[in-house]
Task: structure prediction
Amino acid sequence: MKNLARYIIARLLLTIPMVFILLSIVFVVLRIMPGDPVSSMLGGHAPESVIELKKEELGLNRPIALQYLDYLWQICRLDLGDSMVFKQRVTKAIAEKIPATIELTICGILITLFLGVFLGAYAADRRGMVQDYVIRLYGIVVYCIPVFWMGLMLQLIFGIWLDMLPIAGRTGPRVFASTFEKTGLYVLDSILVRDFSALGDVLIHLVLPAFTLGLVLSGIFVRLTRANMLDVLKADYITAAEARGIRHRKIVYKHALKNAFIPILTMMGLQIALLMAGAVLTETTFSWPGMGRLLLERIYLRDYPTIQGVIIMIALIVAMASLIVDIIYAIVDPRVRY
Amino acid sequence: MRYSPAAGIGWAISRCAGLGKKYGLEWWILVAGAIIILAIVSMALFAGSIAPFSPHDQDTGPQLAPPGGEHLMGTDNLQRDVWSRIVHGSRTILRVAVLAAIISSVLGITLGLISGFSGGFFDRVLSLVMDSVYSFPGLILAIAFAAMLGPGVINITLSVAVIYIPTYFRLVRGQTLSIKEELYVEAAKAIGASGSTILWQYIFPNVIATTVVVFSLNVADAIMIEAALTYLGLGLPPSIVDWGMDLSMGKKFLPSGQWWLITFPGAMISLLAVGFTMLGEGLAEILNPRLLER
Amino acid sequence: MATILEIEDLSVHFPINIGTVQAVQDVNLRLEQGEVMGLVGESGCGKSTLGFSIVRLLRPPGKIVKGRILYHGQDIVQMSQKEILSLRGRKIAMIFQDPLTSLNPLFRIDRQFIETLFTHERGLDKKTAFRRAEKMLESLGISPERLSEYPHQMSGGMRQRIMIGMGLILNSDLLIADEPTTALDVIVEAQFLDLLNDLRRQYNLTIILITHNLGNVAQLADRITVMYGGTIAEVGQANTIFEDPLHPYTQGLLSSIPNIKLDQPKLKTMPGSPPDLVDPPSGCVFHPRCPYDKEICRVQKPETFTEDGRLVSCWLYG
Result:
């Protein structure tokens, strides 16, 4: 356990340069690249003096290096500044929206893993048979469907034509806002206060967005799982287990899948980026009040501090997620020496 | 012998079938992808003669007419013909995606070669930067770029191109490092080949083969990013015909059930992406089966 | 002595895109209870395929196309999937070439033992299963505490012993060992062969020892079967085969072993290369390399003749 703690700290230290570089890139993109935030915010026709005043006020006239240091120092204090459009701290705006994104992405990744891993394992077990080809084709096609179009089509089919599921928002109108004050994760909150009608409402609102995200990402996992399972199924210990009379299904879905899952896990860190990108598109399509929607709303309003804040937050989430994936990997694989 | 088109097609089909037998399903995936791409590319090239109406023509028939009759895919709220807009829209997405892939591959391959070959401090810093960008959600980076640069075909192309540079960089750098250690390169060094000879005559040809596969998959991905940006209203001015923008306009009519406004543009985006993915996957399985497992 | 295994006219084919590999062709073999049968030949001669077909673990597209494998009189070829599963690990154990990769790296040793026990004995409680695994380990000369370790924490020899233990914990009476010592170093190999000899007495075990290492066979085997090109060349008592090989291939094989005791002037090698099993030579598969090649050898497959209590498939003895 002591070793594990040391490993986690070492890994955490490795994350720092990555976060630092990402923050610098965000700074370069948002501050140095062409495009003047202040004049575009003020509508483009504002008089020069007003623009200058606003720039002075925001500290945009100072040397760029100083701005950069200031920017880093701000982030270290976990202060992302104030919105340029609303009277609101950026950190507060983000904190309000994060739970919705987390709820969506967790449900999405669960659906993805379930579908992707099992279909991939099944395809590998049936290598070269019809089922294998059908699943591989599913993987390719589903990967090529843009998230938003998948969302729109599901809305059309299940929301409009079949009229079974809601197509927008996290809850219906008949739910009390006070139910969701604890964590902001609506599923968890409604369980905590034992409001099961609210829970039902939350869940049916979650179905389409979560499946949209989950289905699209499952394509990658089908391919990853299938490729790794094919390798593992060739291993000697699989033949050895067969020779001990263990049932084929148990060998495939327990012995082989657990081994195939390790390389999948190591690659999952990179899939987090896709998950976040998918979440942004899903949120805009389903009017889901998360960070992705916040980002786009503020882009339309040219609210630069909030845009910057959201992107920084996403960078931190990605770094954290890959850290967590690495730690899980170290725990799952007994061969890893920390 | 006089050339006859029928014989030519017959020869092509028999040749295809022969290769199909040799490589099995992978070959047919490749062929299917190539056919899809060819169909859409010719649609873009001959858009003027294929489309029955101008994509901007606002009085082609009734408003929001469902598919059928004169309008293969119906009309939109401004009485424009959806099919004509689809045909013309293929130009935008193909141009942006292919151009973006070319820009990022040229930059990524060059940087990867130099970085992997020269090594040292420069290589370490550049790798760290590229790895960081690679781990960041590409779409969000492209959104930030597009938002800063403002709408325009060149701007959206650059926004898409930026996010794929690390993909090529990582691939090429890794290969360069391993080829550098190969015996035949060592041998070339021993007989006095210069650094640039080794780089261009030994490493570059090896690297280029695998980047072909990645290029095709990259175009597929770029297609979806382009569509996402325009769907979000970030990439292009409204005067340009584009599938993603048509989709976001059609979205408003989803609750009232005008399905054709979203179904056709979205299906075309997916089809085009499927085409490039199939081509890439087919090539990958035939050229180097282990490439995509990394 | 009772017959434990009888293989009759067995043929195993691998259809591949350029044709069919006739990996095993018309093989007949009989094993008596308690004996150690050495199965030798060069790589690709079909000895491993023969071993794997006894437990019906042929890699696809391999298929038994003809013949019977009678285990205690029951035909394994005709068995249902369920029947064959209850045989594997419970009646017939198998160990493989590379002990380093034969154990699932993610499961602890105890879990792998207990899983095997539970598979074949329904209703066994976990404590008893654990006891039995401990006892097994002890009898293999491994400290029972090591049960809670992962495979990567053990040496190759230890892992190979554990593989045997898993096969024998349910009292199998037939052990198929496919090149069990190839991956072990010389000292571990000798210890391992000693252990195999002990176990054989203790459990009245019948062993099929598949190997290309004639030294192993000489140490352990009662009888030897020599295979060539998917067919059996010769079967006989180990000492008689070593002293007086009948089949020309066996003679060639034995003279190509470096022998440190005899000061041979030059190591003999066999001319030619192993046959192409997609398109095997007509008649006797060995005739292109045989120094006594006759007219009949090229056109007709040799029958099996009995010579001093030995079986030999060669026209020289017809």
User: Anything to note?
Assistant: The mean pLDDT of chain B is 86. Chain B touches chain A through 48 residues (CB under 8 Å). Chain B has eleven helices and no strands. The domain at 11-292 of chain B is CATH 1.10.3720.10 (MetI-like fold).
